[in-house]
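Hello, quick one for you while I still have it in my head. I'm working through a protein record and want to make sense of it properly. Would you mind checking whether the tokens look sensible for this chain? I owe you a coffee for this, so here goes:
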Amino acid sequence: MINNQHCVILNTGETNNYHQPVSAKPSVVSVSSIDSDVSDRRDVREELYAGIFRRHRKTILVLGSFLKMLRRCLDSLHALNQVYALIALQFDTVMQQKFW
């Protein structure tokens, strides 16, 4: 249906007799009403996010610090893995050489 309108079932005695409401044709909506709806939703969303942040501020900050530390450690681990891979590759080539 247009504009999220639902079908209305008329009680005429026949089954599966659906009737669209008179206002089923596209309605004319002014730009100013759309803008006010959008700004109202934006204000509600910003207030919701602000409330969530106020309530869970410490948890959010601790989680952010943990993720930053984890990223730093993973970068260090990745660098060590690259060094160890080079050492293992050199060791493998040395072991494949014949000394006799």
